[in-house]
Write a structure and sequence with these properties.
Number of domains: 2
Largest sheet: 9 strands, mixed
CATH superfamily of the largest domain: Zn peptidases
Low-confidence stretches: 1-36
Number of helices: 11
Structural class: alpha/beta
Distance between the termini: 41 Å
CATH architecture of the largest domain: 3-Layer(aba) Sandwich
Length: about 475
C-alpha cells in the first residue's frame, strides 16, 4: 500500500543520513457542521471503550476541512476546539490557561511556499511520487543546477572517504548509502566538500517533518527513489547497487577502488520555504479529578499529538488520520470511559492533545514547562501513556521501552485481552519529553502503520483496531489510577 512504513526502519535510516549534523487565537468554538461532527451524549455513562465513537472522532479530525492540522493553523484550531468540546461534554475540568482547556505556547515553524523541483533537461519529476524534500539543519531553502557527484554514503571521517574519486565542489551530491559507520551527517559532509545540493535515496512519497532549526547557510536536499537515482546516473553505465557494493568493498579494504565518481548529467533542484516564524500553538488539556483528596494529587497522563504535517502548496491535504488523529480520538474515548468510573479512582487522570510534535515535541515540552498545578505538573505524574499511529494497519500493538515496568504492564494487559503486542526501542514521539524527566512513559502504537502520505485518510483507520487499542489503554489507565 502507498506510504506504508514498517517499524520506521526506512525513516530511521534516512534520518541518520540527513540529520546527524547538525498571533494569539480566539478560544471561541469553531462552527461545526452537523454532518461531520459526531453525535455525542454528555450523559452517556458506559465505562466501556467504544470503537465506533473513536472512529467518528478520527473522521472529524482528519477531514480535509481541517487542512492537515498544521500547528498554528486555522484547521488545527478547529480540531483543538473540537477536542475541548468533547472534554467539556465528558465533564473533564479545564486544565489549560485561565480556566480554559487551551494551553498556549509559541513555537517556531517553517513551511513550503511552492512545490519542490527535481528535473533533468526537459523531464520534471513528480513530488511525493519520485522525490520529496528534507528540511532542517543544513537542508533548507535553495536552488541548484549542476552536474552530479556520486558520493556513496558520504563518509569522510574514521578512515573512510566516500568522496574519493570525485570532486563535489559546485555539484549536486548523490548519496546512495550505505550510511557511514557510526552514523554521521551525510548532508553536512557533502556541504563541507563543496556540494551545492544533495540527493538522498529513500522514501519519496512522505512529507518528512520540517525541523524549524537551520544552519546559517543551507542547501536544497531531496529524497529520491532508487529508480530515479538509476536514471540520473545512467550515463555512467552504473546502477545504485553497483555504487553500494563499491562502498562496502572500500570499507572492508581501503585499497579497493574509490567509490565516488562524477556523472555528466545536469540536474535542477529547488526547495522554497518560508522564513522561520513564531506561531501561537495550543495543547488541549482536561482533568478527570479523583474524589480521593490525597491520592488525587497524583495523576496518570493519557494523550497523543493532534497536529499533522498540513497541506502542500498545490492544495493537497495530508489528512493525518492515523498519524495522528487516531491518538486524540482514543484519548477522548478513554476519558469518557474512565469518567463513568470516577468514583473508583484513587488518582486523577490528565488527558492531553499536544501540538508541535511533528516539529520536535514542542507541545509536550511546553506542557512540561508550563503546567504548574497539581495534579498535572510533571512531579505529580505516576505514568504517561502516549498514543501515536494507533489506528492502522495491524492488530499488534507496539510499546516502547523507556519504562520497562510500564511497558511490561501494557503488554501483559494486552495479552490478557487477547491482543498481541511487541516491544520496541524508545524515542520518536511525545513520551520522550516525559521520560527525560524520569516520568514512567511509553509510546503505544501499532506495528505496521501509515503516516505522512496523502493516503493517510480516515478510511485507513478501522473502528475495530481503535477498539482493541482503546481497551488496552483504558484498562491500563484505570488500573494505574486505581492505585495499581
Amino acid at each position: 500500500m502507498l506510504g506504508v512504513v514498517r517499524a520506521l526502519r526506512p525513516l530511521f535510516f534516512i534520518a541518520a543520513l540527513l540529520f546527524a549534523c547538525t498571533t494569539h487565537t480566539a478560544e471561541t468554538p469553531a462552527t461545526q457542521s452537523p454532518t461531520t461532527t459526531p453525535s455525542t451524549n454528555p450523559t452517556a455513562s458506559s465505562s466501556t471503550f467504544d470503537g465506533a465513537r473513536a472512529k467518528a472522532h478520527v473522521d472529524y479530525l482528519a477531514d480535509p476541512a481541517r487542512g492537515g492540522r498544521y500547528s498554528g493553523s486555522a484547521g488545527y484550531l478547529d480540531a483543538a476546539t473540537y477536542v475541548a468540546e468533547r472534554f467539556r461534554e465528558i465533564g473533564l475540568e479545564p486544565a489549560g490557561d485561565s480556566g480554559t482547556y487551551f494551553e498556549h505556547f509559541t513555537m517556531p515553524l517553517v513551511d513550503l511556499t511552492a512545490m519542490s523541483v527535481l528535473a533533468i533537461g526537459t523531464k520534471t519529476y513528480r513530488p511525493r511520487v519520485d522525490f520529496t524534500e528534507s528540511v532542517g539543519g543544513r537542508s533548507g531553502s535553495g536552488a541548484a543546477e549542476a552536474q552530479l557527484a556520486v558520493v556513496g554514503g558520504a563518509a569522510r571521517t574514521g578512515g573512510q572517504n566516500d568522496f574519493a574519486g570525485t570532486d563535489a565542489r559546485g555539484k549536486v551530491a548523490l548519496i546512495t548509502g550505505p550510511a557511514a559507520p557510526g552514523g554521521g551527517g551525510a548532508v553536512e559532509n557533502a556541504y563541507q566538500e563543496g556540494a551545492i545540493g544533495v540527493l538522498v535515496i529513500g522514501g519519496a512519497t512522505l512529507r518528512y517533518s520540517y525541523a524549524p532549526r537551520f544552519q546559517t547557510t543551507t542547501i536544497p536536499t531531496l529524497v529520491i527513489t532508487e529508480g530515479v537515482a538509476n536514471e540520473l546516473i545512467a550515463a555512467s553505465g552504473k546502477k545504485v547497487s553497483d555504487v553500494q557494493a563499491a562502498v562496502r568493498a572500500r570499507r572492508s579494504d581501503p585499497s579497493a577502488p574509490a567509490p565516488g565518481f562524477d556523472v555528466p548529467t545536469t540536474v535542477r533542484v529547488s526547495v522554497s520555504l518560508t522564513p522561520v516564524h513564531e506561531v501561537d500553538a495550543i495543547n488541549v488539556v482536561g482533568l478527570l479529578r479523583s474524589p480521593d483528596e490525597l491520592g488525587g494529587k497524583r495523576a496518570v497522563l493519557v494523550g497523543g499529538h493532534l497536529d499533522g504535517v498540513g497541506t502542500d502548496p498545490d492544495g493537497t491535504v495530508f489528512q493525518a488520520a492515523n498519524d495522528n488523529a487516531s491518538g486524540p480520538a482514543i484519548t477522548i474515548e478513554v476519558a469518557r470511559a474512565l469518567a463513568a468510573d470516577r468514583a473508583t479512582l484513587t488518582h486523577s487522570v490528565v488527558f492531553v492533545a499536544f501540538a508541535g510534535e511533528e516539529e520536535g515535541y514542542f507541545g509536550s515540552e511546553a506542557y512540561v514547562a508550563q503546567t504548574a498545578t497539581t495534579p498535572g505538573r510533571v512531579e505529580s505524574l505516576i505514568a504517561m501513556l502516549n498514543l501515536d499511529v494507533i489506528g492502522c494497519c495491524s492488530d499488534t500493538l507496539i510499546v516502547s521501552n523507556e519504562a520497562p515496568d510500564l511497558q511490561q504492564k501494557v503488554r501483559e494487559t494486552a495479552t490478557s485481552l487477547g491482543i498481541s503486542s511487541q516491544a520496541i526501542g524508545g524515542g520518536g514521539s511525545d513520551q520522550t519529553s516525559f521520560a527525560r524527566r524520569r516520568v514512567p512513559a511509553v509510546f503505544i502504537g501499532m506495528s505496521d502503520y501509515i503516516l505522512h502520505v496523502y493516503a493517510d485518510k480516515p478510511s485507513v483507520v478501522e473502528a475495530g483496531r481503535l477498539k482493541k487499542a482503546g481497551d488496552v489503554v483504558t484498562t491500563v489507565a484505570r488500573q494505574l489510577a486505581a492505585g495499581g
